[in-house]
């Protein structure tokens, strides 16, 4: 029962992490314009994401523009896109596989060994998906930090971490943690020892055994 609860908790955490990865990928706030150290008074906030750039006016109105051409984008941004999309697709595959291996499901009840392996395999795919999202967000964040501290970057074009990065980091951590729980939720096989053999009982001696 304890392993079943750990398995269910791992699946829920991994599923929430997968949802967070989707949200992070769709959010436009991967980096936001920074005015630290500058006295510029602006009536809008600038955001850039993986798919579009947005400007929010002081009135609350948001205007977004989707990137026109894929080929004009930086190779690092294209790689970040690919990693996040791969993490989403891997998470989708992991959900289907892990559901089959859940103890609360009736699929493959006749073969508990294969059912256990399906749960472990789903957990491994969740971990890979979380690692892909973690690499993508960390790589993007490193680029933002390097550009921010670059002395050749103009002050009015510097960006800081956006909220999508923090969502992505949290989601990747949940996916990795949930996948680890899925891999550790299966009970260990108990060591079986061969049954001890009893000593044969001595037959009652008779006088015929002696000459």
Structural account:
By secondary structure, the protein is α+β, with helices and mostly antiparallel strands. 53% of the residues lie in helices and 10% in strands. The protein has four helices and five strands. It has a five-stranded antiparallel beta sheet. A hairpin with a 3-residue loop joins strand 2 (44-48) and strand 3 (52-57). The protein is elongated and about 65 Å long. It starts with a helix and ends in a 27-residue tail after the last helix. Belongs to the claudin family. It is a multi-pass membrane protein.
What would you call the structural class? alpha+beta
Mind telling me the C-alpha Rg? 29 Å
Mean pLDDT: 82
The strands making up the biggest β-sheet line up spatially as 4-3-2-1-5
Terminus-to-terminus distance = 67 Å
List low-pLDDT spans: none
Kindly state the number of beta strands: 5
According to CATH, what is the topology of one domain? Butyryl-CoA Dehydrogenase, subunit A, domain 3
The proportion of residues in beta strands is 5-15%
CATH architecture of one domain: Up-down Bundle
**Which sequence of SSEs, written as H and E, runs from N to C?**
HEEEEHHEH
The CATH class of one domain:
Mainly Alpha
GO cellular component, one term: plasma membrane
Function: Claudins function as major constituents of the tight junction complexes that regulate the permeability of epithelia.
Protein name: Claudin
GO molecular function, one term: structural molecule activity
């Amino acid at each position: 029962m304890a392993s079943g609860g750990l398995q269910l908790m791992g699946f829920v955490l991994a599923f929430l992490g997968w949802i967070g990865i989707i949200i992070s990928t769709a959010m436009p706030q991967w980096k936001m314009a920074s005015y630290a150290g500058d006295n510029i008074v602006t009536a809008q906030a600038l955001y850039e994401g993986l798919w579009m750039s947005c400007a929010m006016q002081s009135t609350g109105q948001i205007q977004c523009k989707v990137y026109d051409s894929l080929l004009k984008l930086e190779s690092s941004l294209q790689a970040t896109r690919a990693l996040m999309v791969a993490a989403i697709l891997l998470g989708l595959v992991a959900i289907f596989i892990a559901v089959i291996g859940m103890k609360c499901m009736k699929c493959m009840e006749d073969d508990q060994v294969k059912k256990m392996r399906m749960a472990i395999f789903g957990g491994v795919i969740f971990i890979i998906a979380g690692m892909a999202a973690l690499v993508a967000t960390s790589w993007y964040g490193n680029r933002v930090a390097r550009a921010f501290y670059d002395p050749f970057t103009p002050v009015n074009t510097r960006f800081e971490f956006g909220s999508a990065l923090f969502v992505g980091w949290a989601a990747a951590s949940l996916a990795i943690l949930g996948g680890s729980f899925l891999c550790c939720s299966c009970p260990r096989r108990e060591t079986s020892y061969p049954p001890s053999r009893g000593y044969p009982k001595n037959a009652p001696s008779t006088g015929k055994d002696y000459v």
